[in-house]
TrEMBL record:
Pfam families: PRK (PF00485)
Family recorded in the similarity comment: Belongs to the uridine kinase family.
Main localisation: cytoplasm
Organism: Myroides indicus
Reactions that this protein is recorded to catalyse: uridine + ATP = UMP + ADP + H(+); cytidine + ATP = CMP + ADP + H(+)
Subcellular locations according to the entry: Cytoplasm
A GO CC term attached to the entry: cytoplasm
Enzyme class per UniProt: transferase
GO MF annotations, alphabetized: ATP binding; cytidine kinase activity; uridine kinase activity
Protein name: Uridine kinase
Gene Ontology process terms (BP): CTP salvage; UMP salvage
Length: 202
């Protein structure tokens, strides 16, 4: 199994890049795990309490479950990947049966900041976009897809997202083998990554 880690700040375009990479690859050979699926369940908290969680700090992620699931996939076992609701700020009761594939892609803001997880990646990619570009994308996306308003996005950006980005995410770029500049759609970089994957899966 070839394991590819794709990190980058919020709004950098990780999810978009993943879709572009897997688009023309055989469906049966590529699987995706999202770090977002591994936000800790917080059933003990009210919705109001959940809105106060710092979702950009590594402690908000159940990394031990994520590492355990990746180990299972590497040994050929399927996993039940949790499903997270951004609208509810909580894990749902659903899960997605995820089978091991020749290529597994793990994507998320903090995946290169966690040493054990990072060491499991054969290729480490960091998607880079300018911070103002990322904020604009995040505003648009969170308002249209994640049930947020402008005040929520901007307050979170100032209070937790930006400081956590500077403390944990940006420094993790140093671990990347490949940095994809994604201020505009970067088809050349996507083609290169696809070529590398095709060579590996033969
Ligand atoms: N290169 C790009 N140029 C313009 N918009 C983009 C680009 N890449 C992604 N987007 C848009 O920005 C938003 C955030 O992208 P997404 O892939 O969800 O980022 P991430 O997963 O890193 O948070 C989405 O609405 C997406 O369509
Ligand atoms: O309940 C939640 C959980 C997380 N977030 C934000 O999501 C991003 C990470 O997701 P991307 O797809 O990489 O943007 C992170 O910055 C958290 O602040 C949230 O808003 N609500």
């Amino acid at each position: 199994m070839l394991v590819i880690g794709i990190a980058g700040g919020t709004g950098s375009g990780k999810t978009t890049v993943v879709h572009q990479i897997i688009n023309e690859l055989p469906e049966a050979e590529v699987g995706v795990i999202s770090q977002d699926s591994y936000y800790k369940a917080t059933d003990n908290l009210t919705f109001e309490e959940r809105t106060l969680i710092n979702f950009d700090h590594p402690r908000s992620i159940d990394f031990s479950l994520l590492v355990q699931h990746l180990k299972e996939l590497k040994t050929g076992n399927s996993i039940n990947q949790p499903v997270y609701s951004f609208v509810k700020h909580n894990r749902t009761s659903d899960s997605i049966l995820t089978h091991p594939r020749k290529v597994m892609i793990v994507e998320g803001i903090l995946i290169l900041s966690h040493q054990e997880l990072r060491d499991m990646f054969d290729i480490k990619i960091f998607v880079h976009a300018d911070s103002d570009e990322r904020l604009i994308r995040r505003l648009k996306r969170d308002i249209s897809d994640r049930g947020r308003d402008m005040t929520e996005v901007l307050d979170r950006y100032q209070n937790t997202l930006k400081p956590m980005h500077d403390q944990f995410i940006e420094p993790s770029k140093a671990y990347a083998d490949i940095i994809i500049p994604n201020d505009t759609y970067n088809t050349v970089a996507i083609d290169i990554v696809r070529t590398v994957i095709n060579e590996k899966i033969g």
